[in-house]
Amino acid sequence: MKVSQLVAPRTFEIVEEDDPVPGDDQVLVDVVVCGVCTSDIGPWLGHDPARGPLRLGHEMVGRVVSTGRAAGRWAPGDLVTGLGGDGFATRAVMDAHAILPVPEGVDAAHALGEPVAVLEESLSRTGIRAGDRVAVVGLGFMGLGLIQLARRHAPGLLIGVDPDPARRRRALALGADLVFAPDELPEDYRAATSRAGEARLDLVLEATGATGGLKTAGSLVRPFGTLCVVGYHHTGDAMMDMDLWYKGVTVVNGFCPDRTRVVAAMSEALDLVQRRRFSYAPLVTHRFGLDGLGDAFRAMEESGPDFVKGVVVL
User: Fold this and answer.
1) 2-114+258-313 maps to which CATH number?
2) What residues does each domain of the chain span?
3) CA angle 256-258-262, nearest 5°?
4) Is this model's pTM higher than 0.85 or not?
5) Among 121, 209, 212, 227, which is most exposed with the fewest C-beta within 10 angstroms?
């Protein structure tokens, strides 16, 4: 099989080696598609060659080739998605308990289970209700996914916030009622008002992964509202605005460390994909081959106006 591995900052190399052998609770898959995730951009920018090659890629769709002794509910030929690793390769092993079938008739590149499961699991812990006033701050891949997922709960108002006009246009096309650049937000959405005229938001979903975005998100939450931190804050300290404490805001950690919960959310999310209540089609904008993995990461880093998410297709 072939594997693309990170050997130095911004440098992948493809090597050939024997296929991995699945353990008792694993399946071996031919990787069909693997998403390129922003959580991997840190290693890509700064991998130390002295630490040896690093293998990335955890947003996999694959076709089962063989199964371990305790993974007999899966059969060769099954197209599956789920939680994995080392996915930038022609073959990989996946945990048989952390995969689900790809919905019938859905393009493999539009059936990445892990990313939408993470978003759905985060949203499930916010207590979102019909009629809530909701904002999504940060309209990249995660934020646009949250716009779609929040829309199905029938919010009374759904706002998107991002400095990029192309991203704001995408949010409107996906169901946002209003969109704003952070510095153009009406003061009513930030300032304390009378109870009868409260304009701030019941639920704010932060999807920037940056301290500035977190500050904007916190300023929009009404007293006793909810802030969900979905963005991946992978560098530095994310400073929390102490006004959240004075407002009695509930802060929800959007990250879930429990695989069982993520797989349960993945089942719900893939059902939404099958019923066309959630679509990757407007989100997966760029496709690359295994030999173009460096280009995929550069496109993600630059994040031009036509870019939302890249995938590697094998």
Assistant:
1) 3.90.180.10
2) 2-114+258-313, 126-253
3) 70
4) yes
5) 212
